[in-house]
Design brief:
The complex is a heterodimer of chains A (415) and B (380). By secondary structure, chain A is an alpha+beta fold. Chain A has one domain. Chain A has ten helices and ten strands. In chain A, the strands form two sheets. In chain A, strands 5, 6, 7, 8, 9 and 10 form a six-stranded antiparallel sheet that branches. In chain A, strands 2-3-1-4 form a four-stranded antiparallel sheet, with helices on one face. In chain A, a hairpin with a 5-residue loop joins strand 8 and strand 9. In chain A, helix 4 packs antiparallel against helix 5. The N and C termini of chain A lie far apart (46 Å). Chain B is an alpha+beta fold and 380 residues long. Chain B folds into two domains: 255 residues, A middle domain of Talin 1; 97 residues, Immunoglobulin-like (Sandwich), CATH 2.60.40. Chain B has twelve helices and eleven strands. In chain B, strand 8 and strand 9 form a beta hairpin. Chain B is flat and about 70 Å long. The two termini of chain B are 35 Å apart. Classes of the chains: A alpha+beta (415), B alpha+beta (380). Chains A and B meet through loops of A and helix 1, helix 11 and helix 12 of B. Chain B: It comes from Actinorhabdospora filicis. Chain B: This is Lipoprotein. Chain B: It is found in: Periplasm. Chain B: Keywords: Lipoprotein, Signal. Chain B: Belongs to the EfeM/EfeO family.
């Protein structure tokens, strides 16, 4: 596919040339009337407003900065004021403008600027900002206990979980995705600054490469294990699947979540070094797909249907019984389907000289109890578990989109 | 102390204030919050010459030089000889200063050689907006309040540092360790003022980690290391002598420092930056772990700056002042949890969770504090 073959230099060229066209290109990434996503323009803005939040079915951008926040205020009014201020800043930044009334350089010279400035001169970069509310926000501090959706039930313990509380959970989260990492980091940094005194960053995560395609015209990217990831993902074009498995329909829990979705995040550390010294055949058996094409073990094309009954030349199942794709597949996991939107990460190395790398898994679904949970439970016997460890976890209710200027994230929750 | 980077930023802020003033005020006081437009007054036994007599409303400092043979006085009289300002006992050969805010009207600059009679009078005409003059007077009053505070703390600094260095020289390890965090408190309350005198700050408060190659390790933190790590102060005498000498010099300079209201406000912000940058991490008092003494002193110094500016802030942005008050209260309440006896818990006795909570409330205060400087600029 063309897009991923564009060199960095060409991309920069595109970016430069897009400056003038930004205004008219504003909606080029939105779903067209047919529900088919347009080709990604890496510099254009994506509208902040809409029925659903952007950043879910939006063609997965290349970079991520994800932040989880704890509310340190005890005031409901503060929380509402924060969501208003964040929504206003998010609308400005996703349009490619600086945050605040006077931006980065047009305020009073004796005062610190409203915006931190590192995104000046950069195009909007396909920035999307997606908010989620964690279960702990509904603990009674803000009078929201009776509005907690049942779907926001605490995740059960899964086999092999090695979760660290300091990089798990949070009252709120913001997922910032963009084609330029500086644009994504700028957005989180400015939201955190606006939030000082009301929220405190609990943990944050940078992702340097998308691991999922969320539209048909995106190439399936590879994860840190070198395998194509997300071949069978729900795509933006699968509108029926989206309605069935991703978007919260009316009557499904509290009304304020209608049009929203539930997000599960998992920081999955990969023991890359041991994986790398595993034979190709074993790697392919663990995943259940070929490494080069990403094809099922019994087929040749990436998008050929998985047939779990297919036998290999030795008469054994072509896709091993403990292969990752088998156990994760909806036909094997109570029909559960999720929209994956994860990112590769590499946060330097650990004290033993090993890369601290892996997958920052993000999944959207209508209800985690019938989405991520049964899949992850089914993965208890996954051959892949030898090479991965879940060290961080998050669960968030992502409200519907903000209808237009003046509205704010989660407005319905406070109505 | 500040890292070199923060100091550079601070210097930038000062420069910006000056440029602003010039651009905005033309021939008016170039920094109306404090240091103001100077008018040279040459007093002799027979003359009283002012180098400017047509003024616009604002703050002025009359620099009175007595070139006569008699002791003189200088007065500014308003209508009906109401005294607007005076400076007495200017001996021959001496120069003294008189700072006054001037509203519109006619005034008499008056020298009184021999300090008797009606004096030699030079009329001064002031034109312009009186609201601006009133505003200037408020800013000047705020600065004056803060300068009084600086003077008190400078005296306290000398007193306590003297006790500390005396204990060091006596070889009294326990007493010196007890006094170390106490002597630092007045320093930490007014450090942004001390930092104006850039060469002395590193000698007094330089951290070992900030030394350039070949630079000598002196001051509080060298003695801190001798006390807590070396546990031996028999060779620390010369460092102690130098510390008290440097502290005396900087205390005098700090008392005489000319400040603007914006500088007072920025100083409060810098104090909180100090907390966030090196004290929250325990890098300031890395040997003694007495960072909480410093943190509390930084916060109380910032609070005094805001107290001085309170009348101005109350008028200009009462809601903002309310935000500051709430944020100060939260920081103080949070700090209070770590009181221990007459002092504080050690930095390494706080858990990561406790430090994070403290860091959060410090950030919540520092963010609005960063806007104080711009809010107390002179009205144009």
């Amino acid at each position: 596919m063309g897009e991923s073959n564009i060199s960095r230099r060409t991309m920069l060229g595109l970016v430069g040339g897009a400056g003038v066209a930004v205004g008219v290109a504003g909606t080029s990434l939105a779903l067209g009337p047919s529900g088919v996503a347009q080709a990604a323009d890496v510099s254009a803005p994506i509208s902040f407003y809409g029925t659903h939040q952007a950043g879910i079915t939006t063609p997965a951008q290349d970079r991520l900065h994800f932040a989880s926040f704890d509310l340190i205020t005890k005031s409901r009014d503060d929380l509402i004021a924060l969501l208003r201020a964040w929504s206003a800043a998010a609308a400005q930044m996703t349009a490619g403008h600086p945050a605040g009334a006077t931006g980065a350089v047009d305020g009073h010279p004796a005062a610190p600027p409203d915006d931190t400035g590192e995104a000046l001169d950069l195009p909007p970069g396909g920035l999307t900002l997606t908010i989620g509310f964690g279960p702990s926000m509904f603990d009674g501090r803000f009078g929201l206990a009776d509005r907690k959706p049942a779907a926001l039930a605490e995740l059960p313990h899964f086999v092999g979980d090695a979760l660290r509380p300091e990089i798990s959970d949070g009252d709120l989260c913001v997922q910032a995705c963009a084609y330029d990492p500086q644009v994504a980091v700028h957005a989180i940094r400015n939201l955190a600054r606006i939030g000082f005194g009301k929220v405190s960053v609990r943990w944050s995560q940078l992702g340097f490469g998308r691991t999922s395609a969320t539209t048909r015209d995106q190439v399936t990217p590879r994860n840190m294990m070198g395998f194509k990831d997300g071949t069978n993902n729900i795509k933006a074009e699968d509108t029926q699947l989206l309605d069935e498995h991703v978007w919260v329909p009316q009557g499904d829990g509290p009304a304020w979540m209608t049009g929203g979705s539930y997000m599960v995040t998992r920081r999955i550390r990969m023991t890359i070094e041991t994986w790398d010294r595993t034979s190709l055949a074993e790697q392919e058996g663990v995943i259940g797909r070929t490494k080069k094409a990403g094809a099922p073990m019994h087929a040749t094309g990436e998008f050929d249907e998985l047939d779990f009954e297919a036998k290999g030349p030795d008469g054994k199942p072509a896709t091993p019984m403990d292969a990752h794709v088998r156990l994760a597949h909806h036909t094997q996991a109570k029909g559960a389907r999720i929209l994956r939107r994860g990112y590769n990460f590499a946060d330097g190395s650990d004290g033993l000289g090993r890369l601290d790398a892996g997958l920052f898994f993000i999944a959207y679904q209508r209800d985690p109890r019938t989405g991520f949970v049964p899949i992850q439970q089914n993965l208890g016997g996954d051959a892949l578990n030898e090479y991965i460890r879940h060290v961080g976890s998050g669960l968030f209710a992502c409200p519907p989109g903000v209808a237009g200027p003046g509205g704010f994230w989660g407005e319905g929750l406070f109505a | 102390m500040n890292t070199p980077r923060t100091r550079m930023i601070a210097a930038g802020a000062f420069a910006a204030t000056a440029v602003l003033g010039l651009a905005a005020c033309g021939d008016k006081a170039d920094d109306k919050g404090g240091a103001s437009n100077e008018i040279a007054v040459t007093a002799t036994d027979s003359e009283c010459k002012l180098d400017k007599t047509q003024l616009s409303t604002g703050n002025y400092t009359f620099v009175v030089e007595n070139k006569g043979a008699q002791v003189t006085e200088f007065y500014i009289y308003g209508e009906n000889d109401v005294i607007v300002g005076e400076v007495e006992n200017v001996a021959p050969g001496l120069t003294r200063k008189l700072s006054v805010p001037l509203k519109s009207g006619t005034f008499q600059g008056t020298c009184k050689p021999g300090m008797v009679g009606d004096g030699i009078r030079t009329p001064i005409t002031v034109t312009g907006d009186d609201a601006v003059a009133a505003d200037d007077a408020e800013l000047s009053a705020a600065v004056a309040t803060y300068k009084t505070y600086v003077a008190t703390q400078a005296d306290e600094l000398v007193k306590l540092t003297e006790q500390f260095t005396t204990a060091v020289k006596k070889g009294d390890l326990d007493e010196a360790k007890r006094l170390y965090p106490l002597a630092r408190e007045p320093w930490e309350r007014i450090e942004p003022v001390a930092e104006i005198f850039g060469d002395l700050d590193p000698l007094i408060d330089g951290r070992e980690a900030d030394l350039a190659q070949g630079q000598e390790f002196t001051g509080f933190h060298k003695l801190e290391k001798d006390l807590w790590i070396g546990k031996d102060i028999k060779d620390s005498g010369p460092i102690a002598d130098r510390l008290i000498a440097d502290v005396k010099t900087i205390a005098e300079k700090a008392k005489g420092a000319e400040l603007s209201a914006a500088q007072v406000g920025n100083g409060a912000k810098e104090l909180l930056d100090e907390v966030a940058a090196t004290k929250m991490t325990g890098e300031e008092d890395v040997f003694s772990h007495t960072d909480l003494w410093d943190i509390n002193a930084n916060v109380s110094g910032a609070q005094q700056a805001i107290e001085a500016l309170r009348p101005v802030l109350a008028k200009r942005d009462a809601a903002f002042l309310g935000t500051l008050d709430t944020a100060f209260k939260t920081v103080n309440d949070t700090l209070a949890k770590y009181k221990s006896g007459d002092g504080w818990k050690l930095h390494n006795e706080l858990t990561q969770t406790e430090l994070k909570e403290l860091s959060d409330v410090v950030n919540a205060l520092a963010e609005p504090l960063s806007h104080v400087g711009a809010k107390v600029l002179p009205t144009q």
